[in-house]
Write a structure and sequence with these properties.
homodimer, 177 residues, Pnp Oxidase, Chain A
Chain lengths: 177, 177
Amino acid sequence: MVIRMSYRLLYPLRTYLITSGDYGSEYNVMTADWVIPLSAKPFILGVSIAPRRYTHTLISKYGEFVVSVPSIKILDDVWIAGSLSGPAKLKVLKLTFSKAVVVKAPIINEALANLECRVIDRRDYGDHTLFVGEVVHTHSKSEAYVDNEPKIDAGFLAHIAWNRFITFSSEELKPRT
Amino acid sequence: MVIRMSYRLLYPLRTYLITSGDYGSEYNVMTADWVIPLSAKPFILGVSIAPRRYTHTLISKYGEFVVSVPSIKILDDVWIAGSLSGPAKLKVLKLTFSKAVVVKAPIINEALANLECRVIDRRDYGDHTLFVGEVVHTHSKSEAYVDNEPKIDAGFLAHIAWNRFITFSSEELKPRT
């Protein structure tokens, strides 16, 4: 028996911010928990987004997006980006943006990393669309990564449900074997 | 500039166990960090697996798999399932298995949840294959979930890199707004 909201059995999941559109004219930012690496070389990732989202419209129009990695420091903005809809939220956010290197969607200055992506495939599954993007440029902060490996005290953010978030423990675990 | 292993910028990621094959004859278990919900209703998820994996062969052959949710209590087995290859690892693991309800692949008794999946699509992206599965049956433990929402003290496991793992903080975070 599959019951409602059973996708929560995969939670807590990391939460990310997705920017889309053209920073020079129309753009948006939303939160997304449904993000996955799909290939190491080349680096390809997927983001699953509901069709009712303005971000869905913008990614479909421009064929580009940015996956940003928020920290607990910008939790309030992560919540606003996920609970308000459309570009009006941009006026409420304290986040600041900059022009990306390759894509038209902006990067987020406060993010621990920004991954610029170009859409190479899209597939509709149930009530969402999976946008598959090749990562064409990456930005990361040394406070959060060493040689691209995450530092566990960087305040990475995960989502439990609704307005409940969490970060990681400060203690690493290693198998005995 | 995209540098090697830049997919680690999305880490730490939750780590899961994937079972595949037929519990009555040939089956396997492996760890996978690359798992994503793809639709809420119906509940569809994706698992990205490299073609060299025995699990890739078994999912391709049987068209079914199970996503299991490990806890820190079975970290040693999670590591073995991820670092040894092929069915020989089954002799080393302390994990125990049971017959699933719908699919031929087994469920893991020690897991916090088991999600039985039937493959509805597969796509090759770069060096991995995304197997898309509709969830046809779920199992979960009340020690880890309340109404399908995760309890933060259940010891959910995430992967940093190689043999470095982590769990979540015991303190929930809520936005002010």
